[in-house]
Design brief:
This protein is 40% helix and 24% strand. By secondary structure, it is of the alpha/beta class. The chain binds S-adenosylmethionine (SAM).
Length: 258
């Protein structure tokens, strides 16, 4: 869970971050949805886009971050609500016709258990549509993962290790998991988004709004400042000083029908 979510930092690359959401919407087969849920809805802005596009009778946006939910409040209506909850333990048997999640499930541990709970929460014939960043083999993530396992930083993290590669399955493992869970149809795709940034400085800005929030949340502030400085130096020893900087970013799309 992460309540280090900083809506301002996160929204810096708003357009780049919302495009995958619109691509995810294109995976959904429009039909009559009685109830929909958006897991890890963030500011709720995109939850409302989904709600207005597919017109479920009722949509719930849920998130564990109060900072995000406070922003989401402004999009509430009679048929669109927001509530605090934790994806890591969430399950509502046979309750939804549509479950979506954009850029949120990658934080949760135990994906086989998580997707089982999602399957159980769908009504028969319901649709699941998930998009997750899958860039954990890029230097930004390999470096933070390596640093989290070094003595000094591990102590600052209170013994925690950042190990996304262990959380995320491979593309084919997700496809197999969906099949084994009994989904009747599926579409699983990996897409590379090429982001043209002004310089590699922007890569740091980008990950500060997402992956590095884990470190921000789990370290005392003075340690995080030192961590950020070392992270920047070590990352810049790997990434070329190109201007503009081409930042390849992989994302996985999972669609399945129960
Ligand atoms: C990258 S943001 C995406 C927000 C939104 N879906 C969007 O596309 O704009 C990830 C969101 O997931 C939420 N989140 C992360 N872990 C969570 C958990 N265990 N339970 C509920 N929400 C969680 C964060 O608070 C954050 O708002």
């Amino acid at each position: 869970m992460c309540d280090a979510w900083n809506p301002t930092q996160y929204e810096k690359f708003k357009n780049e971050r919302s495009q995958p959401f619109f691509d995810l919407m294109d995976f959904i087969h429009p039909e009559k949805f009685a109830s929909a849920i958006d897991l890890g809805c963030g500011t709720g802005e995109l939850t409302r886009v989904m709600h207005e596009r597919f017109h479920p009778s009722f949509t719930l946006g849920m998130d564990s971050s109060q900072a995000m939910l406070t922003k989401a409040d402004e999009f509430s209506s009679a048929s669109l609500s927001f509530a605090a909850d934790n994806i890591d333990a969430w399950e509502q048997p046979s309750s939804f016709d549509l479950i979506i999640s954009n850029a949120a499930l990658q934080w949760s541990p135990d994906h086989p258990g998580l997707f089982k709970r999602l399957k159980n929460s769908l009504r028969t014939g319901g649709q699941l549509a998930v998009q997750m960043p899958m860039n954990h083999d890029y230097p930004t993530h390999l470096l933070s993962s390596a640093m989290s396992q070094e003595d000094g930083w591990q102590t600052a993290l209170g013994g925690k290790v950042y190990d996304k590669p262990k959380t995320m399955l491979s593309v084919e493992q997700y496809a197999t998991l969906l099949f084994k869970l009994g989904f009747r149809e599926q579409r699983v795709e990996l897409k590379v988004y090429g982001h043209l940034l002004e310089s590699r400085e922007d890569v740091i800005s980008w990950v500060r709004g997402s992956m590095l929030t884990y470190f921000e949340k789990n370290m005392p502030a003075e340690n995080y400042a030192a961590f950020l400085q070392e992270y920047r130096e070590r990352l810049f020893a790997i990434l070329p000083d190109d201007k503009p900087f081409f930042y390849p970013f992989k994302r996985i799309f999972l669609w399945a029908r129960s």
